[in-house]
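Replying to the earlier thread about multi-chain prediction with a worked example.

Input:
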Amino acid sequence: MPKRDNIKKVLVIGSGPIIIGQAAEFDYSGTQACKSLREEGMEVVLINSNPATIMTDKEAADKIYIEPITLDFVKKIIKKEKPDGILASLGGQTGLNMAVELASDGILDEMEIELLGTSLQSIKKAEDRELFKRTMQEIGEKVPHSTIVTTLKDAVTFAEEIGFPIIIRPAYTLGGTGGGIANSMDEFKYICGKGLKLSMINQVLLEQSVAGWKEIEYEVMRDGADNCIVVCNMENFDPVGVHTGDSIVVAPSQTLSDVEYQMLRSASIKIIRTLDIKGGCNIQFALNPYSYEYVVIEVNPRVSRSSALASKATGYPIARVAAKIAIGLNLDEIKNSVTKNTYACFEPSLDYIVTKVPRWPFDKFSSADRSLGTQMKATGEVMAIGRTFEESLLKAIDSLDIKFNYQLGLSLFDNKSKEELVEYIKYANDQRIFAICKALQKGFTVKEIVNISQIDIFFIKKLEKIVKVAEEIMNCGIAWLDYDIYSRAKKIGFGDSYIANLANVPLEKILELREKYPINPVYKIVDTCAGEFEAVTPYYYSTYEEKDDVIVTENKKVLVIGSGPIRIGQGIEFDYCSVHSVRALKELGIESIIINNNPETVSTDFDTSDKLYFEPLTKECVLDVISKEKPIGVIVQFGGQTAINLAAPLSREGVKILGTSVENIDVAEDRDRFLKLLEELDIPIPEGSTAFSVDEAKAIANRIGYPVLVRPSYVLGGRAMEIVYNDSSLEEYMSLAVDLANKHPILIDKYINGKEVEVDGICDGQDVLIPGIMEHIERAGVHSGDSIAVYPSKSLDQKTKQIITDYTMRLAKAMEVKGLFNIQFVLDKSNKVYVIEVNPRASRTVPYMSKITGIPMVNVATRLIMGQKLKDLGYKPGLARETEFIAVKAPVFSFAKLTTVDTFLGPEMKSTGEVMGVDRDYHTALYKALLASGLKIPSQGNVLISVADRNKAEAVGIANKLLELGFKLLASEDTYNYLSGVGIEVECVHDNEILEFIKTDKISLVVNTPTKGKISSRLGFLTRRTAMEYNVPCITSTDTMNAVLEVLEKLIGKNQAEVYALNDYSILRK
Amino acid sequence: MKAVLALEDGSIFRGESFGTEGEIIGEIVFNTGMTGYQEVLTDPSYCGQIVTMTYPLIGNYGINKEDIESAHPQVRGFIVREVCTTPSNWRSMESLNEYLKRNNIIGLQGIDTRALTRILRDKGTMKGIISTREDFDFSKKEVEIKTYEIKCPVTQVTTKEVVHYKGNSFKVALIDYGIKQNIVRSLLKRDCDVHVFPAWSKPEEILAIDPDGIMLSNGPGDPKDCVEEISTLKQLMGKRPIFGICLGHQLTALANGADTEKLKYGHRGCNHPVKDLKKDMTYITSQNHGYTIVEASLDKNRMVVSHRNMNDGTIEGIKYLDSDMFTVQFHPEASPGPADTAYLFDEFLAMMKKRRSQNA
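Result:
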């Protein structure tokens, strides 16, 4: 069928902020969808609250609304824009849920707007557990024995009948939030209670557990004419029981015969037809490892994380095709963008193996529960491609950028006993694969591991092979490391540094061998067709074989290093920067090459750069690409800390680092050199010094006086950064942190409890452009990534702004910055400005600032890196004129997924994403940001206040305002004594009753600040966690609370916020 | 053991042997299926050919006793990037290596199969040799490789006598040019009474059982070599509903005066999109053929293209207007590959049903 001609304007709903279970994959699919629709001549209107995305760029759609994705706001946009159709199936669960809300609101019928793609009825059939089960039964597809309950009583009845283990899945939640597997009645009651609360419709599915079966996924597409294809199937390394987002996943399936493959393929097609899905969908099966028996676990009637992975794994652009199907095109009418000659109606054939490994945040949350189950915990993922399974797995492990070890980490579990190892292997956790390798090395048999882990023997045999080659190298040493062993090691994916480590020689020795033999990687194309047809995709991966598919051009080219997996502290914003840099290079007529390994992102879409190398971001892999392509230089400043960390090692190998020099990068990161520079420039910095030992640290802290801010040098996202109040907590900190960064010393600074201000700047080596100054709502001590930021700053006077501008310009000039940099300042009580740190690279706030100011910061920076001058580009140096609009950036957290993590805000970053609220009025912008961040601010009810001593005085003001606004106040014993002492009308809740009050819905908002430092009282921690788990908003900073109160005061009961499109405020001013 | 693959153009690949050892010459073709190697190995259409799999890891699920398309492997040689020596599947009886060894087939592993595939794609199907001989010398073998021909492959692989599979529904005479067992299974699943005839059977012998319909199987080689089979077909046409697959499709076209030609590198895999022009639907099909029907040679008044390949536009199916006869180039019996087009067997059954009701 040709494209529908009654649809001319489409509203695309994005997925909002990055949270666990809904990450960068929706920026990739959304961006592709918008592009795909515009190719067909559609006018595209987009709503997404997440500024750090490519899809919210003005180039991505005709109109972009960075507004909260709530029913109210989406309706406002619909009324303003009057679209003909809405595309919701590319915005993850957020998009789908919004579609459901819009439909039940009636606005779609009223305005005759069509929901494009999969119908609402189909969405319900796939998402509503009972309806899904019935539908599957009608077509003879088995689902696990299950029931739907809405009360705990019914749940218990089912459990008594079926027995354990039982899987609990709440309906309509992301990434299985609130779900789990229960092995006992106590566990069962706990998980069910939580699940019922979290489900949008108070519905929970209880399901017979098929844990231990093979988990197999199919990515299926269907068009309006009923043509169906399977893009890819995937097999989970971890058997059923671990959320697929937390599983190591391999594509294509490895242990299925054609009969089994086709059995599940046929079932998939039957299912997508029955559900009448138009577009893409993901179907998960559990397959009995000892028979043909299988059950359908789940269907996602939309593009998903798995579909992004399948797209990158095969080269088949699922989101692009799904968008075209939504506007009426059929699979056999859509051109295949890989071959350009054939159509989208085919099934990719792979001639390589793809492995995805999740990236978990446990390196940041040392206290988090590392066990894996039905609730997803990973923040991101990496993918690697190889011609052997071992190669793809080891490359994926390398891509994780976890520096604690080499590849399969044979020293990680060195000191563990056999019994301890069994525990690590029996229950899924992020380190299981390392434990298995260690166990194999310690003499466990493959059969034993299979019995303990229930992982398929195929995979364990592969791990055994890896372990054996490693042992071979260890045993032979460098003297006997011949061509045969070395080339086998390379073919199964060992990095040279790992081989050197095993052979116990310096890396140089291995590199000599490599040159002598010589053994170098070749690069193969990902072409969707296993070489059967000629392909035009410039999408490559390395392997150790004979023939290279890459055609190296004579063009002037530049390599941009990406940022790897999404993790806390290094999110999608760096992918945004990498993509913009590549685009700027293209504008300059320079061939752009990107190297990255994150399958979820826009940067790894094969038509983003001129060439894409899907590789680990290790020195070895990057150098291999460089020696292949011979670029004029490498840009490291857009790929976050991962890329910056490569600057010095690459430079030492003679690679030209474009932009700020390695020397000057080091000035920013070497504390002593940095202090010296500031001294020369006469710019103040909080007093501090560098310590290499506990004694040194104590001496410094006592000299400058507590509280002090401590952190290892070379931090990522404030990892291991803490405010320490006394000697004993300093000792404790040192014992933990020194291990974390054994090569780097600890920095100790005076902690100034003042206003925090942040600046992003662009410098051409001499002139500096400052797009704007951001002011944080939370005082210093809360990580900038977790603070609410406001631009233009709301309380800085002209003089302070001048000082900040002056410091920024002088620092950038002194450091001869070429490109982007970011400076954080703190103001003490007398408004004295101190520099806290300088990052000689793009920062988290670059997309946010680019969007509000209209200055394309990465584009400008890339041009400066390539030698242009600010003046040539028409920018006046100095602080740019402030915008009339106010933009507020608010952090978004994923605490619901990470049980046992303390939710208070501190110097260690905890947020996974961010949103932006924009308005002409500060309070409305703040309101939008808070709303978009998911904070449910109540307008009435009981507020529980329980604050640390240092915040008690501030709590008085907060309490008074709350009373004025009509709230009832409750307080913990301590806080009650203080508040009632100053005459505030407050009720006391005894410490032992607090949790019960939260659990029984007696409290609608909690204000809780942690007691000194990290030594939070047990009760404070439990209060915060309980609030989290029972979905009661909990605010842990008095600054945040004051901001919330301002919003409440101004806006309570009103609902008059306007909506603004990006082009309303992002006006390029030079 | 070290082994070498030499193509007729002189390209040399060095790897390791598995299965048996020795030396074998054949036509080198590639198959892009990611699963189904056991079905591929036992598909008689590969008679005379050395098959290379583009998916690099082969043998993962071992060899079982059910997924066979004929009694023993039919390929002359088998080339993979890596053979799995530690298979895992509940039905696996032995490893691929053991299976090939037992059946005396040479396997080659450890070569860059993508590089080999690209050569075949760019230059077309070629002849070649796998040798495990230490003294292998290409120049001494060059002429033998270049002059290699697959001789009368149909006669080699067809059944030697009529085989009967009892069923209660329609009686089908199935002419075996090198049949894949799943054609039989597809008919039996529909309760047909199946009589498998040798390729050389005379028309009278076939009609003697008074079948409801005739099925023409797949098979190896150049269709134009099957002179006798074509003349038999000419005498069967119009007498009963006929459904042809692959070689059966090509022979029917030749029997109707059309022409066939060799494709540059054939279609072998499980992912070929084929459009059913009548239904206006595209299906994913299983394919294994080196020849195709020349479109210009069709008698348009009697033959209509019913199916077309969406990749290269070649003819994938023909409907004959003057009789109950239709044929397809691809494999609706799948095995390996998707079962999307199994509905064609039902269409064949509908034709037989129509005939019965007309005769009643």
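Chain A touches chain B through 53 residues (CB under 8 Å).

Feel free to reuse this layout for your own posts.
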